Amino acid sequence: MSKINMSSVDFETMIIHAGQEHDSAYGALATPIYQTSTFCFDTVEDGAAKFAKQVPGYHPVYSRSGNPTTRAFELKCACMEGGEDAVAMASGMGAVGSVVLAFLKPGDHAIFDDSVYGGTNFVCTTNLPELGVEITRVDTADREALKAAIRPNTRMIYFETPNNPMIKVTDIAAVKAVAGPDIRVVVDGTFAPPPLQYALKLGADIVLHSITKYINGHGDALGGVVVGSAADMALIRNNCMTKINGCPPSPFNSYLVLRGMKTLALRMERHCANAMAVAKYLESSPYVKHVYYPGLESDPGHELACRQMENGLFGGILSFELKDDVKGLSSFEAGKKLLNSLTIPAIAVSLGDPDTLIEHPASMTHAGVSPEARLAAGITDGLIRLSVGLESARDLINDFEQAFAAL
Q: How much is the pTM?
Protein backbone atom coordinates (compact mmCIF):
# COMPACT_ATOMS: atom_id res chain seq x y z
CA MET A 1 0.00 0.00 0.00
CA SER A 2 1.14 3.56 -0.55
CA LYS A 3 3.28 5.04 2.22
CA ILE A 4 1.27 8.28 2.10
CA ASN A 5 -0.91 9.04 5.11
CA MET A 6 -4.15 9.61 3.23
CA SER A 7 -5.81 11.36 6.17
CA SER A 8 -3.20 14.12 6.10
CA VAL A 9 -3.28 15.05 2.40
CA ASP A 10 -5.72 16.98 0.23
CA PHE A 11 -8.35 15.30 -1.93
CA GLU A 12 -6.36 15.89 -5.11
CA THR A 13 -3.43 13.86 -3.72
CA MET A 14 -5.56 11.17 -2.08
CA ILE A 15 -7.64 10.39 -5.15
CA ILE A 16 -4.50 9.66 -7.18
CA HIS A 17 -2.72 7.47 -4.65
CA ALA A 18 -5.31 5.84 -2.35
CA GLY A 19 -5.92 2.11 -2.59
CA GLN A 20 -3.17 1.36 -5.07
CA GLU A 21 -0.18 -0.80 -4.20
CA HIS A 22 3.11 -0.66 -6.01
CA ASP A 23 3.50 -3.65 -8.31
CA SER A 24 6.01 -5.93 -6.57
CA ALA A 25 6.52 -8.19 -9.61
CA TYR A 26 7.57 -5.66 -12.25
CA GLY A 27 7.29 -2.22 -10.70
CA ALA A 28 4.36 -1.09 -12.86
CA LEU A 29 3.05 2.34 -11.85
CA ALA A 30 -0.54 1.66 -12.97
CA THR A 31 -2.42 -1.08 -11.13
CA PRO A 32 -2.18 -4.27 -13.23
CA ILE A 33 -5.29 -5.87 -14.70
CA TYR A 34 -5.71 -9.27 -13.05
CA GLN A 35 -7.78 -10.67 -15.90
CA THR A 36 -8.49 -14.04 -14.31
CA SER A 37 -11.59 -15.81 -13.10
CA THR A 38 -9.87 -17.85 -10.39
CA PHE A 39 -6.76 -17.96 -8.20
CA CYS A 40 -4.55 -20.93 -7.26
CA PHE A 41 -3.46 -22.17 -3.83
CA ASP A 42 -0.04 -23.43 -2.80
CA THR A 43 -1.53 -26.44 -0.98
CA VAL A 44 -4.89 -27.91 -0.05
CA GLU A 45 -4.36 -26.54 3.44
CA ASP A 46 -3.68 -23.07 2.02
CA GLY A 47 -6.94 -23.22 0.06
CA ALA A 48 -8.93 -24.40 3.06
CA ALA A 49 -7.53 -21.60 5.23
CA LYS A 50 -8.39 -18.95 2.65
CA PHE A 51 -11.91 -20.25 2.11
CA ALA A 52 -12.41 -20.25 5.88
CA LYS A 53 -10.97 -16.71 6.06
CA GLN A 54 -8.45 -17.94 8.63
CA VAL A 55 -5.54 -16.30 6.83
CA PRO A 56 -5.31 -12.57 7.58
CA GLY A 57 -5.28 -10.02 4.80
CA TYR A 58 -6.81 -9.99 1.35
CA HIS A 59 -6.68 -13.36 -0.39
CA PRO A 60 -8.87 -13.72 -3.48
CA VAL A 61 -10.05 -17.18 -4.38
CA TYR A 62 -12.43 -16.33 -7.22
CA SER A 63 -12.92 -13.06 -9.08
CA ARG A 64 -16.61 -12.96 -8.23
CA SER A 65 -15.74 -12.55 -4.55
CA GLY A 66 -12.52 -10.62 -4.96
CA ASN A 67 -9.95 -9.46 -7.47
CA PRO A 68 -6.79 -7.37 -6.84
CA THR A 69 -7.66 -4.78 -9.50
CA THR A 70 -11.20 -4.42 -8.21
CA ARG A 71 -9.99 -4.33 -4.61
CA ALA A 72 -7.75 -1.35 -5.41
CA PHE A 73 -10.82 0.39 -6.85
CA GLU A 74 -12.87 -0.43 -3.72
CA LEU A 75 -10.19 0.83 -1.34
CA LYS A 76 -9.86 4.06 -3.31
CA CYS A 77 -13.63 4.60 -3.11
CA ALA A 78 -13.71 3.88 0.63
CA CYS A 79 -10.93 6.40 1.18
CA MET A 80 -12.63 8.92 -1.11
CA GLU A 81 -15.89 8.79 0.88
CA GLY A 82 -14.34 8.35 4.34
CA GLY A 83 -15.98 4.94 4.83
CA GLU A 84 -14.58 1.82 6.46
CA ASP A 85 -14.98 -0.33 3.36
CA ALA A 86 -16.54 -0.44 -0.10
CA VAL A 87 -18.02 -3.06 -2.41
CA ALA A 88 -17.84 -2.65 -6.18
CA MET A 89 -20.51 -3.90 -8.58
CA ALA A 90 -20.87 -4.27 -12.33
CA SER A 91 -23.36 -1.39 -12.57
CA GLY A 92 -25.13 1.27 -10.56
CA MET A 93 -28.26 -0.86 -10.48
CA GLY A 94 -26.16 -3.72 -9.12
CA ALA A 95 -25.34 -1.38 -6.24
CA VAL A 96 -28.99 -0.42 -5.72
CA GLY A 97 -30.15 -4.05 -5.85
CA SER A 98 -27.47 -5.31 -3.48
CA VAL A 99 -28.23 -2.63 -0.88
CA VAL A 100 -31.99 -3.21 -0.78
CA LEU A 101 -31.65 -7.01 -0.78
CA ALA A 102 -29.10 -6.86 2.03
CA PHE A 103 -31.21 -4.82 4.42
CA LEU A 104 -34.87 -5.32 3.52
CA LYS A 105 -36.95 -8.47 4.04
CA PRO A 106 -40.66 -9.34 3.71
CA GLY A 107 -42.71 -7.32 6.15
CA ASP A 108 -40.23 -4.45 6.31
CA HIS A 109 -41.10 -0.92 5.27
CA ALA A 110 -38.87 1.45 3.29
CA ILE A 111 -39.26 5.09 2.31
CA PHE A 112 -38.07 6.22 -1.12
CA ASP A 113 -37.96 9.77 -2.37
CA ASP A 114 -40.76 10.62 -4.79
CA SER A 115 -38.28 11.28 -7.60
CA VAL A 116 -35.46 8.84 -8.26
CA TYR A 117 -33.69 7.38 -11.29
CA GLY A 118 -36.01 5.30 -13.49
CA GLY A 119 -34.27 1.99 -12.70
CA THR A 120 -34.45 2.66 -8.97
CA ASN A 121 -38.09 3.66 -9.38
CA PHE A 122 -38.82 0.22 -10.88
CA VAL A 123 -37.10 -1.46 -7.92
CA CYS A 124 -39.22 0.39 -5.36
CA THR A 125 -42.52 0.25 -7.24
CA THR A 126 -42.32 -3.30 -8.63
CA ASN A 127 -39.46 -5.49 -7.36
CA LEU A 128 -39.63 -4.75 -3.64
CA PRO A 129 -43.44 -4.93 -3.30
CA GLU A 130 -43.32 -8.30 -5.10
CA LEU A 131 -40.88 -9.43 -2.39
CA GLY A 132 -43.23 -8.33 0.38
CA VAL A 133 -41.54 -5.05 1.26
CA GLU A 134 -43.88 -2.13 1.96
CA ILE A 135 -42.93 1.11 0.21
CA THR A 136 -43.89 4.73 0.83
CA ARG A 137 -42.96 7.51 -1.58
CA VAL A 138 -42.43 10.93 -0.07
CA ASP A 139 -40.53 14.14 -0.70
CA THR A 140 -37.59 13.40 1.61
CA ALA A 141 -36.71 17.10 1.65
CA ASP A 142 -40.00 17.68 3.52
CA ARG A 143 -39.07 16.84 7.11
CA GLU A 144 -42.65 16.74 8.42
CA ALA A 145 -43.83 14.49 5.57
CA LEU A 146 -40.85 12.23 6.22
CA LYS A 147 -41.65 11.99 9.93
CA ALA A 148 -45.27 11.15 9.14
CA ALA A 149 -44.20 8.35 6.78
CA ILE A 150 -42.12 6.45 9.35
CA ARG A 151 -43.65 3.28 10.77
CA PRO A 152 -42.53 0.83 13.46
CA ASN A 153 -41.27 -1.51 10.72
CA THR A 154 -39.40 1.17 8.72
CA ARG A 155 -35.87 -0.05 8.01
CA MET A 156 -34.56 2.26 5.27
CA ILE A 157 -34.85 5.78 3.86
CA TYR A 158 -33.46 6.07 0.33
CA PHE A 159 -32.94 9.23 -1.70
CA GLU A 160 -30.66 10.95 -4.20
CA THR A 161 -29.13 14.37 -3.62
CA PRO A 162 -29.11 16.18 -5.93
CA ASN A 163 -31.81 14.00 -7.42
CA ASN A 164 -32.63 12.83 -10.92
CA PRO A 165 -33.86 14.74 -12.89
CA MET A 166 -35.14 17.68 -10.80
CA ILE A 167 -31.73 18.41 -9.21
CA LYS A 168 -33.49 18.72 -5.83
CA VAL A 169 -31.17 18.94 -2.81
CA THR A 170 -32.09 17.00 0.34
CA ASP A 171 -30.58 17.72 3.76
CA ILE A 172 -28.75 14.49 4.63
CA ALA A 173 -28.16 15.41 8.28
CA ALA A 174 -31.83 16.33 8.74
CA VAL A 175 -32.99 13.02 7.27
CA LYS A 176 -30.68 11.09 9.60
CA ALA A 177 -31.96 13.09 12.56
CA VAL A 178 -35.51 12.03 11.66
CA ALA A 179 -34.46 8.43 10.97
CA GLY A 180 -32.59 7.87 14.22
CA PRO A 181 -30.13 5.03 14.82
CA ASP A 182 -32.37 2.13 13.79
CA ILE A 183 -33.28 3.20 10.24
CA ARG A 184 -30.54 3.07 7.61
CA VAL A 185 -30.20 6.22 5.56
CA VAL A 186 -29.01 5.36 2.04
CA VAL A 187 -27.89 8.17 -0.26
CA ASP A 188 -27.31 7.85 -3.98
CA GLY A 189 -24.56 10.40 -4.51
CA THR A 190 -24.07 9.81 -8.23
CA PHE A 191 -24.81 13.44 -9.18
CA ALA A 192 -22.42 14.85 -6.56
CA PRO A 193 -19.45 12.60 -5.81
CA PRO A 194 -16.54 13.80 -3.68
CA PRO A 195 -15.07 16.35 -3.64
CA LEU A 196 -18.52 17.94 -4.11
CA GLN A 197 -20.32 16.15 -1.27
CA TYR A 198 -19.45 13.69 1.51
CA ALA A 199 -22.66 11.84 2.36
CA LEU A 200 -21.22 9.70 5.17
CA LYS A 201 -19.73 12.71 6.93
CA LEU A 202 -23.14 14.41 6.69
CA GLY A 203 -24.87 11.49 8.43
CA ALA A 204 -25.74 8.85 5.83
CA ASP A 205 -25.18 5.22 6.82
CA ILE A 206 -24.50 4.12 3.25
CA VAL A 207 -23.60 6.01 0.09
CA LEU A 208 -23.74 4.47 -3.37
CA HIS A 209 -22.72 5.65 -6.81
CA SER A 210 -23.21 4.69 -10.40
CA ILE A 211 -19.51 4.64 -11.22
CA THR A 212 -20.52 4.75 -14.89
CA LYS A 213 -21.00 8.49 -14.46
CA TYR A 214 -18.60 11.01 -12.93
CA ILE A 215 -16.31 8.70 -10.98
CA ASN A 216 -15.18 6.84 -14.09
CA GLY A 217 -15.86 9.95 -16.13
CA HIS A 218 -15.02 8.73 -19.61
CA GLY A 219 -18.19 7.01 -20.80
CA ASP A 220 -16.44 3.70 -21.43
CA ALA A 221 -17.14 1.49 -18.40
CA LEU A 222 -20.18 0.43 -16.38
CA GLY A 223 -19.84 0.13 -12.63
CA GLY A 224 -21.33 0.74 -9.22
CA VAL A 225 -19.99 1.03 -5.69
CA VAL A 226 -21.40 1.04 -2.16
CA VAL A 227 -19.49 2.56 0.77
CA GLY A 228 -20.18 2.36 4.50
CA SER A 229 -19.25 0.49 7.65
CA ALA A 230 -17.15 -2.67 7.45
CA ALA A 231 -20.02 -4.74 8.88
CA ASP A 232 -22.58 -3.47 6.37
CA MET A 233 -20.18 -3.94 3.47
CA ALA A 234 -19.40 -7.52 4.54
CA LEU A 235 -23.14 -8.28 4.57
CA ILE A 236 -23.62 -6.78 1.12
CA ARG A 237 -20.60 -8.61 -0.32
CA ASN A 238 -21.25 -12.01 1.23
CA ASN A 239 -25.03 -12.17 0.95
CA CYS A 240 -25.91 -10.12 -2.11
CA MET A 241 -23.21 -8.95 -4.50
CA THR A 242 -21.48 -12.35 -4.69
CA LYS A 243 -24.63 -14.45 -4.19
CA ILE A 244 -28.16 -13.53 -5.26
CA ASN A 245 -27.02 -10.64 -7.46
CA GLY A 246 -23.68 -12.12 -8.57
CA CYS A 247 -22.67 -8.75 -10.01
CA PRO A 248 -18.92 -8.07 -9.65
CA PRO A 249 -17.28 -5.69 -12.11
CA SER A 250 -14.83 -7.09 -14.62
CA PRO A 251 -11.16 -6.50 -13.74
CA PHE A 252 -10.79 -4.50 -16.95
CA ASN A 253 -13.64 -2.16 -15.99
CA SER A 254 -12.13 -1.75 -12.51
CA TYR A 255 -8.85 -0.79 -14.20
CA LEU A 256 -10.64 1.79 -16.36
CA VAL A 257 -12.32 3.30 -13.31
CA LEU A 258 -9.01 3.48 -11.42
CA ARG A 259 -7.61 5.36 -14.39
CA GLY A 260 -10.59 7.70 -14.52
CA MET A 261 -10.55 8.48 -10.80
CA LYS A 262 -7.07 10.01 -10.95
CA THR A 263 -8.52 13.06 -12.72
CA LEU A 264 -11.77 13.24 -10.73
CA ALA A 265 -10.89 16.45 -8.86
CA LEU A 266 -9.88 18.31 -12.02
CA ARG A 267 -12.84 17.06 -14.01
CA MET A 268 -15.42 17.98 -11.38
CA GLU A 269 -14.13 21.55 -11.15
CA ARG A 270 -14.58 21.99 -14.91
CA HIS A 271 -17.97 20.26 -15.02
CA CYS A 272 -19.24 22.53 -12.23
CA ALA A 273 -17.84 25.74 -13.73
CA ASN A 274 -19.33 24.95 -17.12
CA ALA A 275 -22.70 24.00 -15.61
CA MET A 276 -22.87 27.26 -13.71
CA ALA A 277 -22.11 29.27 -16.84
CA VAL A 278 -24.73 27.42 -18.89
CA ALA A 279 -27.32 27.59 -16.08
CA LYS A 280 -26.92 31.38 -15.83
CA TYR A 281 -27.24 31.69 -19.61
CA LEU A 282 -30.38 29.55 -19.73
CA GLU A 283 -31.92 31.44 -16.79
CA SER A 284 -31.58 34.64 -18.82
CA SER A 285 -33.03 33.15 -22.01
CA PRO A 286 -36.45 34.44 -23.10
CA TYR A 287 -37.33 30.89 -24.22
CA VAL A 288 -36.75 29.23 -20.83
CA LYS A 289 -39.45 29.01 -18.17
CA HIS A 290 -37.35 27.60 -15.33
CA VAL A 291 -33.82 26.29 -14.65
CA TYR A 292 -33.22 23.69 -11.94
CA TYR A 293 -29.67 24.04 -10.64
CA PRO A 294 -28.69 24.50 -6.96
CA GLY A 295 -25.82 26.82 -7.87
CA LEU A 296 -28.30 29.52 -8.90
CA GLU A 297 -29.35 31.90 -6.13
CA SER A 298 -32.92 31.60 -7.41
CA ASP A 299 -32.97 27.83 -6.78
CA PRO A 300 -34.91 26.80 -3.63
CA GLY A 301 -32.10 24.42 -2.68
CA HIS A 302 -29.31 27.00 -3.04
CA GLU A 303 -28.86 27.80 0.65
CA LEU A 304 -28.76 24.12 1.63
CA ALA A 305 -26.41 23.33 -1.25
CA CYS A 306 -24.03 26.05 -0.04
CA ARG A 307 -23.88 24.28 3.34
CA GLN A 308 -23.91 20.67 2.18
CA MET A 309 -21.86 20.76 -1.00
CA GLU A 310 -18.18 21.64 -0.84
CA ASN A 311 -16.09 24.52 -2.15
CA GLY A 312 -18.88 26.23 -4.08
CA LEU A 313 -19.19 23.25 -6.43
CA PHE A 314 -22.80 22.46 -7.29
CA GLY A 315 -22.48 19.67 -9.84
CA GLY A 316 -22.47 19.36 -13.59
CA ILE A 317 -26.14 18.47 -14.10
CA LEU A 318 -29.02 20.87 -14.63
CA SER A 319 -32.56 20.61 -15.91
CA PHE A 320 -34.70 23.26 -17.56
CA GLU A 321 -38.16 23.77 -19.01
CA LEU A 322 -39.00 25.74 -22.10
CA LYS A 323 -41.93 28.13 -22.16
CA ASP A 324 -45.11 27.12 -23.91
CA ASP A 325 -46.04 28.81 -27.18
CA VAL A 326 -42.45 29.44 -28.22
CA LYS A 327 -43.02 30.48 -31.83
CA GLY A 328 -46.33 28.62 -31.72
CA LEU A 329 -44.81 25.39 -30.33
CA SER A 330 -45.69 23.58 -27.14
CA SER A 331 -42.81 23.15 -24.67
CA PHE A 332 -42.65 19.47 -25.64
CA GLU A 333 -42.40 20.16 -29.39
CA ALA A 334 -39.99 23.05 -28.86
CA GLY A 335 -37.83 20.82 -26.66
CA LYS A 336 -37.59 18.15 -29.34
CA LYS A 337 -36.69 20.72 -31.97
CA LEU A 338 -34.10 22.29 -29.66
CA LEU A 339 -32.38 18.94 -28.99
CA ASN A 340 -32.33 18.09 -32.67
CA SER A 341 -30.83 21.51 -33.53
CA LEU A 342 -27.90 21.36 -31.09
CA THR A 343 -24.56 20.35 -32.61
CA ILE A 344 -22.28 19.81 -29.57
CA PRO A 345 -24.42 17.94 -27.01
CA ALA A 346 -25.16 14.33 -27.85
CA ILE A 347 -28.70 13.08 -27.24
CA ALA A 348 -27.98 10.37 -24.67
CA VAL A 349 -29.32 9.26 -21.29
CA SER A 350 -26.08 8.97 -19.33
CA LEU A 351 -24.13 11.74 -17.62
CA GLY A 352 -20.70 12.63 -16.28
CA ASP A 353 -18.87 12.13 -19.57
CA PRO A 354 -16.35 14.61 -21.03
CA ASP A 355 -18.99 15.08 -23.76
CA THR A 356 -22.05 17.20 -23.00
CA LEU A 357 -25.16 14.99 -23.04
CA ILE A 358 -28.79 16.05 -23.24
CA GLU A 359 -31.99 14.06 -22.85
CA HIS A 360 -35.76 14.26 -22.44
CA PRO A 361 -36.68 12.47 -19.16
CA ALA A 362 -40.38 11.91 -19.88
CA SER A 363 -39.64 9.90 -23.04
CA MET A 364 -36.24 8.48 -22.05
CA THR A 365 -34.89 7.96 -18.50
CA HIS A 366 -38.30 8.21 -16.83
CA ALA A 367 -40.45 6.72 -19.58
CA GLY A 368 -41.19 3.75 -17.31
CA VAL A 369 -42.59 6.02 -14.59
CA SER A 370 -46.35 6.61 -14.78
CA PRO A 371 -47.40 10.06 -16.07
CA GLU A 372 -49.12 10.74 -12.75
CA ALA A 373 -45.98 9.91 -10.75
CA ARG A 374 -43.84 11.98 -13.10
CA LEU A 375 -46.02 15.04 -12.68
CA ALA A 376 -46.18 14.56 -8.91
CA ALA A 377 -42.38 14.69 -8.88
CA GLY A 378 -42.33 17.78 -11.12
CA ILE A 379 -41.19 15.94 -14.25
CA THR A 380 -43.21 17.61 -16.97
CA ASP A 381 -43.27 16.62 -20.62
CA GLY A 382 -41.25 19.72 -21.39
CA LEU A 383 -38.41 19.05 -18.94
CA ILE A 384 -34.92 18.68 -20.43
CA ARG A 385 -31.90 17.32 -18.52
CA LEU A 386 -28.41 18.50 -19.45
CA SER A 387 -25.14 16.90 -18.36
CA VAL A 388 -22.62 19.66 -19.02
CA GLY A 389 -19.30 18.29 -20.27
CA LEU A 390 -15.74 19.53 -20.43
CA GLU A 391 -15.97 21.49 -23.68
CA SER A 392 -15.60 25.27 -23.82
CA ALA A 393 -18.53 26.87 -21.98
CA ARG A 394 -18.55 29.63 -24.60
CA ASP A 395 -18.94 27.08 -27.39
CA LEU A 396 -21.81 25.39 -25.55
CA ILE A 397 -23.62 28.70 -25.03
CA ASN A 398 -23.09 29.67 -28.68
CA ASP A 399 -24.55 26.32 -29.69
CA PHE A 400 -27.66 26.95 -27.59
CA GLU A 401 -27.94 30.39 -29.18
CA GLN A 402 -28.11 28.94 -32.68
CA ALA A 403 -30.46 26.15 -31.58
CA PHE A 404 -32.86 28.64 -29.99
CA ALA A 405 -32.70 30.70 -33.17
CA ALA A 406 -33.69 27.59 -35.12
CA LEU A 407 -36.96 27.45 -33.18
A: 0.94
